[in-house]
Structure formats: structure tokens, C-alpha cells
Amino acid sequence: MIALSVNLNKIALIRNSRDTTNPDVPQHARMCIDAGAHGITVHPRPDQRHIRAQDCFDLASMLSVEFNIEGNPVSGPRKSERPGVGDYPGFMELVREIRPAQCTLVPDGDNQLTSDHGFDLKRDGDRVAPLLQELRSLGIRTSLFMDPDPEQIRLAAQVGADRIELYTESYAQAYKHNRQLDEVFQRFVLAAQVAAEEGLGLNAGHDLDLHNLPRFATIPGLLEVSIGHALTVDAISMGLANAVAAYQDALGNR
Length: 254
Hints:
The protein is an alpha/beta fold. The protein has helices at 9-16, 25-34, 53-60, 91-98, 121-137, 150-158, 169-177, 181-197, 213-216, 229-238, 240-250, and strands at residues 3-7, 39-42, 66-71, 102-105, 141-146, 163-167, 201-205, 222-227.
């Protein structure tokens, strides 16, 4: 079975468009869990444009499934500019306090609309390795956001990651436009094989949806997918519980 972790960023984004607590993030997490989700993912950014630091604490206090917090480990503390919203404590400080089941490190910057590339561990490996060691010492499973590049995946093992999360945008685009789909898909198959050879667990995420997920789910060794944007959009027409169930079907879990 491939675990489905639902990313709640877009639920928080809707809430943040008004001065309100609706939609309630923990309540929607509970709805996802009741519908069969295996985990909950959030990606708190320093500007707190969607998931806020307080959401992370609220979720940690109520979750009965695995909690995955993802983000840039070098994001430091930042004062909040919005009344009623607490300050951002810095990514590593947030994770140290909460100690989620899994922490996925992502090399995103403030100017990015969303994550759009994996780590370059030739450049960043020396900086990432001690962070991974610290997270593991806290009992947190570690994952690195990575492109399907065999050389970089081998470096992920060398710096001490437990898992990698494959950045699947190129696959999603190839599927959408039916452009070099077999070739692109095979890159991910090879990446999965290299991860297995290096003893790395395999996660994946980014623009996976009900159409492209069934094929991607055939990749050997895939342990977990985290899906937020597409699942939230589908929930508008299908309802949240039905959307979670549909994604479980797409993964072949039912």
C-alpha cells in the first residue's frame, strides 16, 4: 500500500483570504483522516501565506496519523505583519518543538510561488548533512526533495537522508501534454531503482492528480505521495471525503 498524505496548504490559503478561522485546518485534517488518509502534510513558509506556525502546533496536538512538515531548513525567524497572526519561529525551531514523524527538507525560496526544484547536494550537501543528523537524533524520519537525478540521489544517501521525495512536476507535464511521457516516466523508474540500491525510502509529490497518479503509482518501491492542490480542487466538486477516497483508488489502495 502506498501511503496518501494530504497537504492542507490550500485549505489554509482559503482561510487566510479572510479574517476568519473558516475553513478550520484541524477540522479538515480530521475529515481527511476519517476518509482514510494515512498522513497529513504541511509546508509552512516564513511569510505564512497559507499554513501558519500555529497551525502546525494545532495539528500536532490532534493528529492520529503521521505528520509530515516540509520546508526550507535555513528559513529563519520572521516577525508577522498580519494582526492576530503569531511570528514565524524559523523552520528548524518549529520542527524541534513539534517533532513530527517526518520532516521533508525543501530548497525553496521566498520568491517561489511553489517548490520548483530539488536539492543540489554537490553545492548544499555539507550544509544539509548536520541538519539531517540533528533531525534523526530527535527521532524524526528525514526526507529530501529531489529531482530524478541518479547522481544527486546517491548523494542524498551519502549525506544521511532516510528517504527522498521525488519532485514530479516533469512527469505531470509530460502526462498532461502527452509529450515524451514514456521517456520521462522511465527517468523516475530509474530514480526509484537508484534510491532502492542506496537504501533510501521513496516518496513523491507535486502536481500528481487523479489522471496521472495511477501510472506513477506503479513505480517500484513507492512508499508515500503527498497531494494538496489537485485534491483540494477535486474536493470542491466531489466533497473532501470522496476526493480522499478517489485518490486512494488511484493509488490502488482499495
